[in-house]
Amino acid sequence: MSITPDVLETEFSLTTAATRLDFLSRRDSGETALNTVRDEDDHWGSIRAAEVSLDVQESLELLALGEVVARKAHDSQLIGIRAALRGGASWDDIAAALAVTAQAAWDGFQEAIGRQLEADAAAAAKELAGARPAS
Predict the structure, then answer these.
(1) φ, ψ of residue 49 in degrees (nearest 5)
(2) How is the chain split into domains, by residue range?
(3) 11-43 burial, b if ≥16 CB within 10 A, otherwise e?
(4) What CA–CA distance (Å, rounded) separates 58 from 25?
(5) Tell me, what DSSP letter sits at residue 25?
(6) 96-134 pLDDT, tens per residue?
(7) Terminus-to-terminus CA distance in the chain, angstroms?
């Protein structure tokens, strides 16, 4: 099985992907030394001091999950913006929440509509968005 964001994206929800990403990130020791010397007579000490490094498959999964989380979080903006607009938020309010300009927020919303929504839902979202804010 190939570990790619496209494969993992279908298998993990945002919450599950973020949890697994956090687990793998915390589990890796960050150790860069390939050879370490351990006292062979101290069996318990070596177990207590053992640091875990991710294997290649886990490392690739960590990378792919980072991309999955980024994609899913980005896609959730559509939901958040629609909810904010329905609640009466202005494009300036939405822009501040996204740390972008009102025009960039509106443009991003339009792009997400085209990518994520079917025709009827897209038309309703465009109507909700209104005209592009003036610069």
Answers:
(1) -90, -5
(2) 1-74, 89-135
(3) ebeeeebbebbeebeeeeeeeeeeeeeeeeeee
(4) 10
(5) H
(6) 999 999 999 999 999 999 999 999 999 999 999 999 999
(7) 48
